[in-house]
Amino acid sequence: GATHYYDFVLKETNFTKLCSTKSILTVNDSFPGPEIRVHKGDTVFVNVHNQGNYGVTIHWHGVKQPRNPWSDGPENVTQCPIPAGTNFTQEINFSSEEGTLWWHAHSDWSRATVHGAIIIYPKRGTTYPYPKPYAEKTIVLASWYKADVMEVITDALTTGADPNISDAYTINGEPGDLYDCSNETTYRLAVKYGKTYLLRIINAILNEETFFGIADHNLTVVGTDGAYVKPVTVDYIVITPGQTMDVLVTANKAPSYYYIAGSPFADTVVPFDNTTTTAIFEYKGNYTLPSPIPFPVLPVYNDSDAAATFTNKIRALNSAKHPVNVPQNITRQIYMTVSTNILPCPNNSCLGTSNGDRLSASLNNVSFDAPSMSILQAYYWNLSKDVYTTDFPEKPPTYFDFTGNVDNITLYTSLGTKVIMLDFNETVEIVFQGTNLSASENHPMHLHGFSFYLVGKNKGNFDNATDPLKYNLIDPPEVNTIGLPKNGWAAIRFYADNPGVWFMHCHLERHSSWGMDTVLIVKNGGTKATSIRPPPAYMPPCSKS
Ligand code: C2O
Ligand code: CU
Questions:
Q1: What SS3 string covers 375-428?
Q2: What 3 state SS string does 29-42 have?
Q3: PROSITE patterns, per this entry (predicted)?
Q4: Which secondary-structure segment (H or E) carries 155?
Q5: Residue 21 C-alpha to ligand 2 middle, in angstroms?
Q6: Does residue 73 line the site of ligand 1, with CB under 6 A?
Q7: Residues 151 and 273 in one domain
């Protein structure tokens, strides 16, 4: 493959939206940030120059980074932040992904404005497994806050309460016609009658999953998370933060304007941004504008059944050229609850709950306590003492009734930096069990370093005697993020064939900040080719070591 070089200059830039101007952290002055375009098999070096005011890291979401966790990016998991005024070069190898992925900051909430698309074309000399589209367009969904996002999360963690919700969603940086002071800049996707377009849709929203559609036009999903799927034609899609979807749309309706819209899928009682972002699907040519402009029919915000109807249709392409490799037998099963909880607040000073506690979140009732040093460096140099422990519980607390009655269980969790150790090439199944503690919600669970197969998912409590018999081991979608349904479970499988230190977490930023995270450490195999690569000559310094 070819080698590409990019410079990412992180700096504060002024943007005006929703009638007010503020400074946001950007890459190369743009929001969303620059696109990386490669072919499968290529290598990219990105020199990240931090000219902002605080330490930041950058992550290449969905890129497996074989044997090279050094460039993966999550703050204090694989590296310490790049200090302001310094730079760090990351190497990204596109060994097996094909389709759309994205990059984003992976420290505090800076990913709100620091993100962009990664487009991976088929290996040179090969083609898409679907008819070549006339043109391709990237659609990035994101959140916009009038306030400074770093203050939003700092305030929430200080008071222990829910963070403030966003003021708008955006499509390619623009809120759209339904928000104040926004209709001059609404994103317009120009199309020619009769042509088919590939939309590469990325959900970079911070805290809500999304329904998305185009008025009067069908969407044909052909890929997700950098892998192909069997084409499926739908009226709307559901996309969680972290996910990408490649969708074909044919401009075959009367030439006109049609609204494109994204609205939240948030089946919850906790506060969320219940607004709708729009763009315009605009045919070229002369016509009189309809009034009103047709608007897509999207499910209401809490329609979990509509979300499941969509996600249950997604199957891996599983063709001769793009086969699946689903582990049929597992050597390791990890069963983990996913919940929001509370934690005692130091000095009872919090406002988060009535008795001075703060909101938190956990996996198997362990709330991830981010270390102040990189776990990868601690592991590699045998400095794990005081950084992490290897006793992550592989089964939930027995007193949890998960999705059932929660009256007689404690909401309290406890802090820990507990990692999961895996031997090289174990065949792993992780069952995520949504658990009703302080509130039941959907959770987009994401794993670094791998894509995995979503072999099963349903409502209620997982039953290890019967549910595995119903798994799809034939053509499950190969993804890096799954929407764990509210009051339900999801099972994933993968080969632990990538030695390294890999973060796993909910991609709702407020949950991740509250501790809905853990780390998988995959040990080296017996050879150089199955071991973590040596570290680069320079890594950003860790102040505590
Ligand atoms: Cu999209 Cu841990 O990241
Ligand atoms: Cu979550």
A1: HHHHHHCCCCCCCCECCCCCCCCCCCCCCCCCCCCCCECEEECEEEEECCCCEE
A2: CECCCCCEEEECCC
A3: MULTICOPPER_OXIDASE2 (PS00080)
A4: helix 149-159
A5: 31
A6: no
A7: yes
Q: Which atom of ligand 1 is nearest to the CA of 104?
A: 1
Task: Confirm or reject: Cβ of 106 under 6 Å from ligand 1.
Answer: yes
Question: Which tokens belong to 494?
Answer: 């993968």
Can you tell me the distance from the alpha carbon of 482 to that of 516, in angstroms, rounded to the nearest whole number?
15
**pTM metric for this prediction:** 0.97
- List average pLDDT for each run of 10 residues in the chain, which is 545 residues long: 97 98 98 98 98 98 98 98 98 98 98 98 97 98 98 93 97 98 98 98 98 98 98 98 98 98 94 97 96 97 97 98 97 94 80 80 95 95 91 83 61 92 98 82 97 96 94 98 94 98 98 97 97 97 70
Q: Determine the distance separating the centroid of ligand 2 and the alpha carbon of 507, expressed in angstroms.
A: 7
Residue owning the nearest CA to atom 3 of ligand 1: 61
105 alpha carbon – ligand 1 mean position (Å): 9
Q: What residues pair up with 16 in beta bridges, in sequence order?
A: 21
446 in contact with ligand 1, CB cutoff 6 A: yes
189: nearest Cα among 149, 139, 226: 139
* Domain stop point among 320, 344, 376: 320
- Quick check: is 106 in a domain? yes
Tell me the residue range of the domain where 439 lies. 332-530
